[in-house]
Amino acid sequence: MDDNHMIELFFARDEGAIEAASREYGAYCAAIARGILDDPGAAEECVNDTWLKCWQSIPPQRPQSLKGFAGRITRNLALSALRAGNARKRGGGQVQLALDELSEVVSGGETPEGALDRQAFRAALDGFLAGLSRRDRDLFLRRYWYLDSTEQLAKCFRMSRTHVTTTLHRLRQKLRVHLQQEGFEL
User: Fold this and answer.
1) What is the rounded CA–CA span in Å between residue 141 and residue 128?
2) What does the pLDDT look like over 87-121, one tens digit per residue?
3) Residue 37, beta-bridge partner list
4) In whole angstroms, what separates CA 111 from the centre of its chain?
């Protein structure tokens, strides 16, 4: 079943939408939650909560990609669970380490002015990612969206751990320069 059909089921308030979305994207969402949370039970709970959030959000929202929409909800729920202490950090603090690395470039504080610039920031980030090579883009996203450890990345990309950390450092610096060129104060 394609995204448009599933979204129409959500709009029709047909409970089959949840079953279809879970069948189609459940494994994807579970992988995201497990990557952030060390507790399989907490990860499963995040995925279940994802479908509830989808049900509550669609309508009025009409996502262009149900997979991306559900993935973002799962990631946010898992990060919230992690921050709230509902789950232990995985890999000796890899999640917090990845978030700390990225916070060197982008602050997490939200101000009213910052909320107004969020859409411009997304566009700038999309532009940055579009300008990267496929490998660098995948490396960046795997580290800072999926929160993979540097060890996992080294294995996946067949690079040394040092090469991974150096590349990520350079990518963060490029992101900083790109955001400053786009007019963002960091």
Assistant:
1) 12
2) 344 445 566 667 667 666 665 555 555 555 677 88
3) 89
4) 21
Copy the structure tokens of residue 124: 């700038």
Distance of CA 38 to the CA centre of its chain: 17
Judging by beta carbons within 10 Å of its beta carbon (0-12, 13-18, 19+), is residue 148 exposed, middle or buried?
buried
Contact 58, 7 (CB under 8 A): yes
Q: Looking at residue 88, what DSSP letter applies?
A: P
Contact status, residue 184 vs residue 105, Cβ threshold 8 Å: no
Residues in the chain: 186
- In DSSP notation, 21-84 reads HHHHHHHHHHHHHHHHBS-HHHHHHHHHHHHHHHHHHTTT---S-HHHHHHHHHHHHHHHHHHT
Q: Computed from CA positions of residues 171, 177, 183, 186, in that sequence, does the dihedral angle turn out positive or negative?
A: positive
The model's pTM is 0.67
Q: What are phi and psi of 38, to 5 degrees?
A: -85, -15
How many angstroms from the chain centroid is the CA of residue 177?
A: 22
For the chain, count helices (H), then strands (E). Answer: 9, 0
Asked if residues 50 and 73 have their Cβ atoms less than 8 Å apart, the reply is yes
